[in-house]
UniProtKB/TrEMBL annotation, chain A:
Residues 157-166 have a biased composition (Polar residues). One of its GO terms (cellular component) is transcription factor TFIIK complex. This is RNA polymerase II transcription factor B subunit 3. The lineage of its organism: Eukaryota, Fungi, Dikarya, Ascomycota, Pezizomycotina. It comes from the Eukaryota.
From TrEMBL, chain B:
Residues 29-48, 352-389 are annotated as: Disordered. The keyword Membrane does not apply. Pfam families: Pkinase (PF00069). ATP binds at residues 67-75, 91-92. Residues 29-42 have a biased composition (Polar residues). Residues 61-352 form the Protein kinase domain. PANTHER family: CELL DIVISION PROTEIN KINASE (PTHR24056), CYCLIN-DEPENDENT KINASE 7 (PTHR24056:SF0). SMART domains: S_TKc (SM00220). Keywords: ATP-binding, Kinase, Nucleotide-binding, Phosphoprotein, Serine/threonine-protein kinase, Transferase. One of its GO terms (cellular component) is cytoplasm. This is Protein kinase domain-containing protein. It catalyses: L-seryl-[protein] + ATP = O-phospho-L-seryl-[protein] + ADP + H(+); L-threonyl-[protein] + ATP = O-phospho-L-threonyl-[protein] + ADP + H(+).
Length: 367, 404
């Protein structure tokens, strides 16, 4: 990185100097123990807090480091997270790029697509990091950002939700662990106290002279044991209850299961089509309501025929269809379509499940 | 059989369905296109083309376990040899005692019409081949979730409402409409011929009594359709009828879906007519012009005539369907077949667009009758009622069951 402060230029320094002397005002930590260094992600030149106050309090000003002269603003100065400023810069850039290219694996059809996408993003990031085609790359980044504003926002929301969930889970786990520790500590205290009580009782009894020493010792021992078992079971119970409570408490508002596919918002339902999408139409003829033919007249008028529901019009429709139906039908095309259809047969995974013994673990299509 | 009309699927999806003989043709062209298959296998040499094709088809499928057996057919679970994960039902039709010299009518009808009709609500016939002893084998779609009758009867375990009834009736209506549009009468619509696929889709099965629409002056038999679902014109012995008979059956299925017991369940044909008169009204010349000319028409006393029931009667019985649904039911159960709505009119009824919206097929109640139930359903012969339901006419004793 070329804009980092020149390290090897000046007189030899003792190790650690860099951290202790402000490169701008040269004041050292020795004189000002509370000195803090800040950087601006514009150029990553380090300077002490008092320099930032001094130079940038009255609005934007050029960077005081020799040869830099970038205009910096006070608001953007911040403490560095990483000691190495190269890394600081890389992390910043990566964060920025990742904020824009925040597509998720679930959005991709296949792993290959996802990997290709990742590679492209990495190329872009690398260009920015290494200063290759920066202008071009920035333009691309901006264009993408503008085009996909909505999506980016959505994905960001999903991610922050996820982070919150994980955090809540961690918090719940920590809380549980704390409760367990506390319970264990209380238990120990109780036990000790009881033992102490038992011993005192034994001594009392002996002092009063109720029976001989051996029996008294045995009796008290028994009592102590009984008490301790009772306490242990009670403690166990309460611990379980506490755990259950924590579980419920955590689960109710921030319920999250890992490894689930996100439910895609179902498309608005289409209007119900009683015909199921099938349309039967005649391309080559019109059907008339009445066809004049003396042979048909009797069938139209004979009550024996008509009362049963027989309808000459159906016969006519059929005759017309048989005359014209084959036109424009090409068997080869139909075979191809039929085979395509066959590929979309009913999946048998569920059939196998429903069929029980039918075929365990079968997957695939009927045909 | 009729050639296909141009049947186009909804333009939003690019599937195009046309019911033609393409299926059988395809089997042929496929096998012809790879003749090395036939010629390399030794037994194939010197056989007739038909035999070779049959062998090729036969070798594509493997029978697994038996799902059910009746006097008419045995049903096996099967799979494609090339793809062991595929599931199929193979219905082996027994050489019938009545038709020693050839195939039984039921088998011919079933193959003939199933091959023509390709629709999501009609059971798919994938292939046909004959095995040893000239037994006919139908390779059918595997429908593991039982049938509608099972769901209707299980009133304890399964609850459903109008939305579900609408979804089922919609699927049934589409199947029958598609049959009629291709000029096929099913003639045996009843809840246990409505099988349920793994995804909840209801499929019309058992085309053993199907036939194509008759030509004028060519009589048809009136001894079709299981009695409880048989329309009055068939009970009166009409020999000329139309798709209206299937619509009546759908109407009774509709009623049964709502009531959860058979709507008119007569023990004999006479009893059946009596029940229809009571439930719907007595057929007379007034409400059904020409009915008295039918061969089997019975003269009713003027005093005993029951007027055709009004909408109030239906509303009190089938109120859950709502007034619009009752309207549809009434038009499906009209006594005069000419006044009955057609299957197309049924699908155009405003009930489909009124509330509630039909349940999506994935959400329909399921019972999982299992493959055995499919075996039960497919082994039956057309027009038969299961044991313990209605007629107890003894079928011919068949001692050949064990050895076939």
């Amino acid at each position: 990185m070329s804009r980092a402060p020149a390290r090897n230029g000046a007189a030899p320094r003792r190790p650690g100097d860099e951290d202790d002397i402000c490169p701008v005002c040269k004041s050292s930590r020795y004189l000002n123990p509370s000195m803090r260094f800040l950087v601006n992600p514009e150029c990553y030149h380090k300077m002490c807090e008092s320099c930032v106050d001094r130079i940038f309090s009255h609005g934007p000003a050029p960077c005081p480091v020799a040869g830099c002269a970038r205009t910096l603003r006070k608001a953007r100065f911040r403490r560095q997270t990483f000691e190495d400023l190269h890394i600081e810069r890389e992390v910043d850039i990566r964060r920025r790029v990742a904020g824009v290219f925040n597509k998720r694996e679930e959005e991709f059809e296949s792993l290959r697509d996802w990997n290709n996408y990742l590679e492209e993003v990495e190329n872009l990031t690398w260009n920015l990091l290494q200063g290759v085609d920066v202008k071009e790359t920035e333009k691309k980044l901006d264009a993408y950002k503008r085009q996909n504003e909505q999506e980016i926002k959505q994905n960001a929301a999903i991610e922050s939700q996820e982070n919150a969930n994980t955090e809540a889970q961690f918090a719940a786990q920590r809380e549980q662990a704390r409760l367990r520790r506390e319970a264990a500590r209380n238990e120990e205290l109780d036990e000790r106290r009881e033992k102490e009580e038992g011993r005192r009782e034994m001594v009392d009894m002996m002092a009063r002279g109720d029976g001989d020493a051996d029996t008294i010792a045995r009796e008290t021992q028994k009592v102590v044991l009984k008490k301790s078992t009772a306490r242990r079971t009670a403690a166990e119970r309460s611990r379980q209850q506490a755990a259950a409570k924590v579980d419920n408490g955590a689960a109710a508002p921030l319920f999250s299961i890992q490894g689930l596919k996100r439910v895609v918002q179902p498309a608005p339902e289409k209007e119900y089509d009683p015909f199921g999408g099938y349309v039967i139409k005649h391309e080559y003829y019109y059907l008339r309501d009445h066809y004049e033919h003396s042979w048909l007249d009797n069938a139209r008028s004979d009550a024996q025929i008509t009362a049963g529901g027989y309808d000459v019009r159906e016969y006519c429709a059929r005759a017309m269809m048989e005359a014209f139906g084959g036109l424009g039908v090409f068997v080869e095309d139909e075979i191809r379509e039929r085979e395509e259809m066959a590929d979309k047969g009913v999946g048998t995974a569920s059939a196998a499940a429903a069929g029980g013994g039918g075929g365990e673990g079968v997957d695939g299509d009927v045909l | 059989m009729a050639m296909s009309p141009v049947v186009t699927y909804d333009s939003t999806s690019n599937i195009k369905v046309t019911a033609t003989k393409a299926k059988s043709l395809a089997v042929r062209t496929n096998s012809i296109s790879k003749p090395q298959n036939g010629s390399t296998s030794e037994p194939g040499r010197g056989q007739e083309l038909a035999e070779r094709l049959n062998d090729e088809t036969k070798q594509k499928y493997v029978k697994d376990k038996k799902l059910g057996e009746g006097t008419y057919a045995i049903v096996y679970l099967g799979h494609l040899k090339a793809d062991p994960s595929s599931l199929l039902a193979i219905k082996k039709i027994k050489v019938n005692t009545e038709y020693r010299d050839g195939l039984s009518m039921d088998a011919i009808r079933e193959v003939k019409y199933l091959q023509e009709l390709s629709h999501p609500n009609i059971i798919a016939l994938h292939a046909v081949f004959s095995s040893k002893n000239q037994n006919l084998n139908l390779v059918l779609e595997y429908l593991p979730l039982g049938d509608l009758e099972m769901l209707i009867k299980d009133s304890e375990g399964i609850r459903y409402g109008t939305a579900e009834v609408k979804a089922w009736m919609g699927m049934l209506g589409r199947a029958v409409w598609f049959c009629h549009e291709n000029f096929v009468l099913h003639r045996d619509i009843k809840p246990n011929n409505l099988l349920i696929a793994a995804d909840g889709e209801v499929k019309l099965a058992d085309f053993g009594l199907a036939r194509s629409f008759s030509d004028p002056y060519r009589p048809m038999t009136y001894q079709v359709i299981t009695r409880w679902y048989r329309p009055p014109e068939l009970l009166f012995g009409a020999r000329f009828y139309s798709g209206a008979v299937d619509v009546w059956s759908m109407g009774t299925v509709f009623a049964e879906l709502i009531l959860r017991f058979p709507f008119v369940a007569g023990n004999t044909d006479m009893h059946q007519l009596e029940l229809i008169c009571n439930a719907i009204g007595t057929p007379t010349e007034e409400n059904w012009p020409g009915v008295s000319k039918l061969e089997g028409y019975l003269k009713y006393d003027k005093a005993a005539t029951i007027p055709v029931r009004g909408k109030d009667f239906y509303l009190s019985k089938f109120g859950t369907a709502g007034p619009v649904g009752v309207d549809l039911l009434m038009s499906m159960l009209a006594l005069d077949p000419r006044k009955r709505c057609t299957s197309r009119e049924m699908l155009e009824h405003k009930w489909w667009s009124s509330e509630p919206r039909p349940t999506a097929k994935e959400d329909l109640p399921k019972k999982g009758g299992g493959p055995e139930r499919m075996g039960e359903d497919l082994k039956r012969r057309g027009g038969e009622i299961e044991d313990g339901r209605g007629d107890r006419v003894a079928r011919k004793l068949n001692f050949g069951v064990a050895k076939s």
